[in-house]
Amino acid sequence: MASKTSFYIIIALLLTLGFGLAIARYTYFGIPLTPDKFKKAWLLEARVDFEAESGPVLAALTLPENPPGYKILGENSASPGYGFAIIEHDGKRRGEWSRNNVNGPQTLYYKIQLVETGYDYNPQESDTVVADNVFWNETEDVAARYVVSTAGEKSSTPESFTRQLIEIINNPEPEENAALLLSSYKPVELLYKLINYAGIPARISQGLLLEDARRRQQPVQLIEIFSDKRWISFDVVNKEQGLQPGYFLWQRGGDSLLDIVGGSNSRVTFSMIQSSLSSLDIAATDIGQSGISWLGVHSLSVEEQGMFKFLFLLPLGVFVVVFMRLIAGIKTLGSFMPALIALAFVQTSLFQGIVSFIVIVTVGLIIRSYLSYLNLLLVSRIATLIVIVIILVTFFSLAGYHLGLSTGMTITFFPMIIIAWTIERLSILWEEESGREVLKQGGGSLLVAVVAYLVMTMPLAGHLTFNFPELSLVILAGIMLLGRYTGYRLSELYRFRDFKAASNEDN
Amino acid sequence: MKIISPCSLKQFGILGINSRNRDYIARYNKRKYYPYVDDKLKTKLLADVHGIPVPALKSIIRTQHDINLLDPVLSELNGFAVKPSRGSGGKGIWIIKEQKNGNFIKSSGAVISKNDFKRHLSNIVAGLYSLNGSPDVVIVEDIIRISSVFSDYSYEGVPDIRIIVFKGYPVMAMLRLATKVSDGKANLHQGAVGVGIDIATGSAVNAVWFSKTITRHPDSNNDIRNIKIPGWKKILELASGCYEMSGLGYIGADIVIDKSKGAQLLELNARPGLSIQVANGAGLIPRLKLIESVQMPFSSKEERVKFSIKNFSNY
Fold first, then answer.
1. A41-121+256-278, which class in CATH?
2. pTM
3. ipTM at complex level
4. H-helix or E-strand containing B15?
5. CATH 2.60.40.2250 domain span(s) along chain A
6. A348: burial class by Cβ within 10 Å (0-12, 13-18, 19+)?
7. Which of B9, B93, B284 to mutate to test the interface with A (most CBs of A within 10 A)?
């Protein structure tokens, strides 16, 4: 059969191309085939946005310098039309972009490559540091003196003093002196002033929690105090002492993170991506023109790379769905709903994802059962469900946030429209078949989603799909091969378990 | 968990879903003919042209507005069925056996208010039951009155005969009896009894209920093995004629027997299920292979039926 030959030629072609490119990438660029567990490397990107006010512009961003626990491998800035220079200012490293005449929205990028060196977070400082002078108005001065003495009574060291202050400031019902101060200062700022006021040197630092493929992150403000010749950091919100693993200190003390002259509405956000060391080397050296390198995504900005990291996982999830449906024969709701849910799980973490999924779908089903009395037309009913799902997600995120589950926010990653359709399909299934069928198909979809999640979160899978995107062709070949499978499904071995040949009985 | 080995399934000649989809449906059913079977209204009109008997069409509701114009038509009817034209798996089909005090009585005895009835029609038109959720039309057609042959064997619903027709040859047949559990519905996974019917004679050979072999109807306790469908050869010819009518090589024809009007085609299915094999205690593959191996297929349905009767007897 002609179609059969051409099919296998296409499969062979896909496999050769996929594996061939991967092998080439491996041999020429030395991208490792397995994720390197010992040296985590990071690509960090700061993105500065502002509105230029037609005239000369000067943007200054504080840059990291000897960040504890990390080594800077290289840095560059990509901002066409701007002059860029790194200068020393008050002992701080700053990147300055300048341009003579600009107008309208502007975006500047600064990229830095880091490698983890281990947690040598607290090197001793040789210089002596003195506390900054702080100024209060009269009423504030009284209140500050009271707060400092209350904390001082309960503490013996600068560290315990700081912990006490953090307790006082974080108290949901602060006593009146603290409340007065909090009304005019942000907590971190207030801490900075109070600690220095008590004669202990303190400074505000900007930290970033490094998590793979995060985009548009805001820096976290930490307070650092100087005690026993070391800078010790405190997380004001989580009340943690010492720099937590995974935190990268972008700025330690000094002026504001970003200063813009000649612009307004400025903000700075951070994107980050974890990478293997040698693929980072590639990104560092400009390989834009050479050979097959343009097929890799390392030349893109970190923000876009983070997106691709998820995008490249999707073929794998889709493959799992195809396998589970055609070979295992598990019924799912909607063809690829499980793959999308699995992708959401990757972002929320598994347990939390499953719980929120079940809760949202269950509550949605209850509300949907009421909707069926209201006699709505189908399109408007689905639209109603979408809005309800959004409200539910918002509600649970906020509830989770206030209950202290800081990761509660991640449910917003769920594909809302898919969930709305899932609820609609389940509810029809419930009305027409039975609750049992709902559990069967809902559970089947969830099972497939979990398997897809487990496959997608294998470190090796993430590493290979991201660094060797051409392996998608191999997955494609696999999916197409599965499409030719005409053997029995596993579920059929169960379905036909009691099969008896009728004519045999009579013979 | 008890399972069966793939080898013995193969030995029995059981057709699996993947193979059905790729080796038969994809190969013998041309996409362009699907609308004629996926849309019951089109099937009906086509059947009329080909002289295949179908339940009489009473009314068609195409828009939400039409629903309010329906009253005069319905008032003349006593029993009728409403169906989504593009529904699948029997979803959305309501059999109304009579009207009383402005309410509708379903075949199950459930009383439906006029409002609920209209809401159901509105749902169908909005596309709730159609294959991809696109707007649909409602068919209102004559109710089927159960034939006395089956009255001892069915709970509420009218039994239907599913015949797999491959390239015009009837290859396997099954009678589906509604039960209390299946709520008058004739789908096996909902709890209907599947009775394998011998292609040669029209008599019952085997019966399954929830994939277990049974001999008596779970509700009436009558011995199913005594069933013999009258006018079997005509029914086979009716099914066989659906091949020319639909142009599809692998179909399931659903046929009912009305008390007064005899055998009528209810609908065609381009993706017929596989449970028929369990009901018959026989695999489809040997029969399908035999037909595929025939070099010069018969062109008349009478000859094809003769071939099937000769070759596909269960005994």
1. mainly beta
2. 0.68
3. 0.79
4. none
5. 41-121+256-278
6. buried
7. B9
